[in-house]
Amino acid sequence: MKSSLQILLLEDDSSDAELIQQLLEAENFVCEITRVQTRVEFLTALGDDGIDLILADYKLPSFDGAAALKLASSARPDVPFIFVSGTIGEELAIEALKMGATDYVLKTRLSRLAPSVRRAMREAEGRAERKKAEEALRRSEAYLAEAQRLSHTGSFGWNVSSGEVYWTDETYRIFDYENKTKPTLQMAIDRCHPDDRMRLQDVLERAATEKDDFTVEHRLMMPDGSVKHVRAVARLSVGDDSQSWVYVGAVIDITERKRAEGEHERLRQLEADLAHMNRLTTMGELTASITHEINQPLAAIVSQSEAALRFLNRDDPDLDEARDSLSSIMADGMRAGEVIRGLRALAGKSGPQLTRLDLDDVIRQVLALARGELLRHDVVLRTDLAMDDRPVTGDRVQLQQVLLNLIMNGVEAMRGVTERTRELTVSSMLAEPSGVLVAIKDTGAGLDPAVAERMFQPFFTTKSDGLGMGLAICRSIVEAHGGRLWVSPRAPHGADVRFTVPLWAEP
């Protein structure tokens, strides 16, 4: 109860007003009384939001309590209204209570006034608390409904014993039923896609018999022929009567997520196809060099085979020379085999396979493929590979593609250089805290600041016959490995392209 009461008193007798105030103060009420006598004064006083209590005589010369009660009930319905009168009879008192008065006290029994005021104030505070709680509940329900609408998540209840089902508004929206319709389990089954219906019924039947939590994803066939994907999650609890079993759960519209997953898969496949096309394009550019790399060991095999036959066909066979020739044949055969294996891997079309890799070995394989191209363009190769004992996590074919693209770009950048040595440096080193840094440096024309920022954009190229996908694909591959790829100018000439890949971490 408030420490100070603001009381509006409708009373024409000033002595009665003083008596009322004295009685209330004698009962430890701290109150401020505003006394009015006319309808105009009463209406004006009702505009004060601070009024806690209205006390009114029943009959006044120019106004009456019944009319005052009607005005107060309309303007201030939450404020207690107590008649304090000497003329009100039992019938009028009962009628006044029916009209909305809180209580009535006869002036001949004013000792009842303080208890009546205390009771009226307690009831008013209780009503105010209930109203506040109801408003908080409505606000909470509104927030929940909005959150469910935004997240496409509806709630449901299913009493297994009685079969009764409860849906929130969002659940009705997901299943596209009018929320005036009483929901049933069969309504959800009927809305299920025909191809998923038996599976859903099986899940629900097991839930009803085994009394266990369940999660199920299935499709809905909507009245307009469209298809939705939903996910239902339910947990079992005991009903309010402690006898029944009730599932409480949520149904989530995951249609957009499924569509996004499908789109992501299509984009991933497109990216893989572009990467494969880029590998084939690069291999096409290397055709002459690759042919040389294969023909050279094959020619050596034929030559060494003829030599081995001559050594064996002598009257006194020279077994040592024949043995040396056969060893050379084996070495050249392995060299040709490595080239062919590298080509098959690059030409293949498969998904990424992240494994433990010796990155320096991958670099050497790529340099073997590009050796002919380096010789053809008079490029001096320098290597500084320092990661033989530190494996990385990566896809061999994809990293080969990155290295081959960057090496070929370096060779291309030096094609018109005549005034200095064409030099390509490939190095690997530890990059803190848990990665490997690979650098490919050339002595070409360097970076044009006007295009440097666009080099990694898809379809941007400075070559007349280029696709503009090489560097974009390289960056995508490196970032998919958890690394990064960048390029910077090299003093006094050329460019420095670098990328990182993570070190292998034992599972």
The proportion of residues forming helix, as a percent range, comes to: 40-55%
Distinct helical segment count: 15
Strand content: 15-25%
Number of strands: 17
CATH homologous group name of the largest domain: Histidine kinase-like ATPase, C-terminal domain
- Mean pLDDT score: 82
Inertia-based shape = elongated
Strand order of the largest sheet: 2-1-3-4-5
- Kindly report the CATH topology of the largest domain: Heat Shock Protein 90
- Major beta sheet summary: 5 strands, parallel
Radius of gyration: 45 Å
Contiguous uncertain segments of 5+ residues? 464-469
**CATH architectural designation of the largest domain:** 2-Layer Sandwich
Cα-to-Cα separation, first versus last residue: 67 Å
CATH class of the largest domain, named Alpha Beta
The number of domains is: 3
Structural class: alpha/beta
